[in-house]
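User: Good morning. I'm curious how fe (iii) ion would be positioned relative to this chain. Could you predict the structure with it bound?
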Amino acid sequence: MRNVTMENVTDVVIESLGKHEKISARQGEIMESLIRHLHGFCKDVKLTHDEFLYACDFLGRAGALCSDKRQEFILLGDILGVEVLVDMLSNPVSGNETVSTVLGPFFREDAPVMPKGASTVQKEFEGQETVYVEGYVRDTDGNPIAGAILDIWEDAPNGLYENHDPDQPEYNLRGRFETDETGHYAFRALRPVPYPIPGDETAGELIRYMGHHCMRPGHIHVMITREGYRPLISQIYDSTSDYLDEDSVFAVKEELVGEFRKAPEDADTDLVLRFDFNLPLKSQAMAA
Ligand code: BEZ
Ligand code: FE
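Assistant: Good morning! Here's the predicted structure, ligand included:
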């Protein structure tokens, strides 16, 4: 095609798909839609060449920031609400299964395996509030799921995850807990506090361009796995936290908001939190 015009450019590019090398139906579907939306976006905003060059430079700088400590593109996707959207598309909810939400960039593999009820707290912080978290993991018919692993992680009262804070011990506020034969789990932890997602570099540049802020409400991350069930990646939010209605990554769901209640006088924590989870069978989830 020698005569590309404003009118035909989108179709010309789409017609080039798979012309010289075989591509799968899925590749074709993804690329056609991507090209249509990208071209539509450029036309909508009448993108200037300077803005195009700025975007190329921005993406280059974002890529250069990626390391095992920081995945800048996940952050950019979070700020744009893309991770939460993709999560909802991948984990549709059709019944009483617990809703999932974003994984975020702070998960670490191989957190310490701990006995039921153990504490993830390895370092004291002034003003910290301890919490006993417990509940049940069940299937969608209410049957207990024994042997499910809950991988837990949260920020410290200074707003930092352990792997971003040289003053916290390795794996502080992280742990893996197994449900007993009744599906019960329990662990001790700290009340999570709101914290800013990284607001420097390209993530901060994007947030400021959007006129948004960096804060997330206080939450405890949980990933639950058990052979035969759909894995759950989710978060429990503190009902009293700031930013529940203005999360910088749009990940709050009403069903995930939990009540951190004052513990009984004789308890060894300041607070208690009860939160139950329902997992669908993998076969059920795939059928849905
Ligand atoms: C988090 O909750 O850890 C998180 C999620 C998305 C972006 C940044 C942080
Ligand atoms: Fe988090």
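The radius of gyration is 22 Å. The chain has a mean pLDDT of 96.
Let me know if you'd like a different ligand tried.
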